[in-house]
Amino acid sequence: MTSAPYVIFLDDDALPAPGCLELLVETLDRHPELLAVGGLISNYSPPPLRDRLFRRLFYLPPLFDERQPIYWRARSYARGALIASGKLNGGCMAFRREVLEQCGGFDPRYRGPSIGEDIEISQRLLRLAGRRDAIALVGGAFIHHASEGSWKRNPRSTEYELVATHYWFRRNHPWNLANRLRFVWMCFGLLLWSLAATLKRRDSASLRYFFAGLRSIRNGYRGCPFLHTLTDQ
């Protein structure tokens, strides 16, 4: 086993720009208060306004993915700038080895092409540190994400998003009334979105996948292609 002080994680469809990995390591060297840093996806474009408004309305913090607006203007940040985010970029992340080991490493329940594994470990690092500024994205550390988040165009995207969000959120945040209501509000939004898609396409697939996601959550994530169920352990 290597004794290198840093561990870098790359997706198999993520191509770091020249100097990206070196910049992440340099940032950890310069900022000992940081536990981990992530790069910026440089090839994402803003979705339609209705999609952005929907996310702003129904995804309350910490469910809202603050990384996306950062990616859309990735080239506006100065090289080496620390960009506040409670979520690292799974396409390219650098960790302090001892911190990664201390928090238990990557969750072994994830398998194959996963959704939300980067958010899950980001939230675990924040819990370990006890402060919101323990991780950051880094300006100028660009990667090209070949799939461009293609899972969002999968017919089962609503199902996957429900399951992935429930898993990382419940695992890393108190399941109190306020957080339950945040999750229920997101579910209500996704239900409305699925209803609208059903009416527009005259196809009930969106609604079927929405309820499939709820069933998977209720049954310990059974049927989810990227999470082991409790009985798989």
Please, could you describe this protein's structure?
It is globular, with a radius of gyration of 18 Å. The chain has eight helices and six strands, in the order E-E-H-E-H-H-E-E-H-H-E-H-H-H. The chain is α+β, with helices and mostly antiparallel strands. Helix 5 runs parallel beside helix 6, helix 6 runs parallel beside helix 8 and helix 7 runs antiparallel to helix 8. The longest helix is centred in the last third of the chain and has 25 residues.
Biggest sheet statistics: 6 strands, mixed
Shape-level CATH architecture of the largest domain: Alpha-Beta Complex
| Total domains | 2
CATH fold type of the largest domain: Spore Coat Polysaccharide Biosynthesis Protein SpsA, Chain A
Q: Report the order of strands and helices.
A: EEHEHHEEHHEHHH
Average the pLDDT over all residues and give the rounded result: 92
* Low-confidence parts: none
Number of strands: 6
Write out the CATH superfamily name of the largest domain: Spore Coat Polysaccharide Biosynthesis Protein SpsA, Chain A
Calculate Rg over CA atoms: 18 Å
Helical percent range?
A: 40-55%
Strand content: 5-15%
Q: Can you count the helices? A: 8
- Overall SS class: alpha+beta
Note the overall shape.
globular
User: What is the rounded distance between the termini?
Assistant: 25 Å
CATH class designation of the largest domain: Alpha Beta
Give the topology.
Blueprint: E1 6-10, E2 14-16, H1 20-30, E3 36-41, H2 49-58, H3 67-72, E4 82-84, E5 92-96, H4 97-102, H5 117-129, E6 135-145, H6 157-172, H7 177-201, H8 205-218
Parallel strand pairs: 3-6
Antiparallel strand pairs: 1-5, 2-6, 3-5, 4-6
Helix pairs in contact: 5-6, 6-8, 7-8
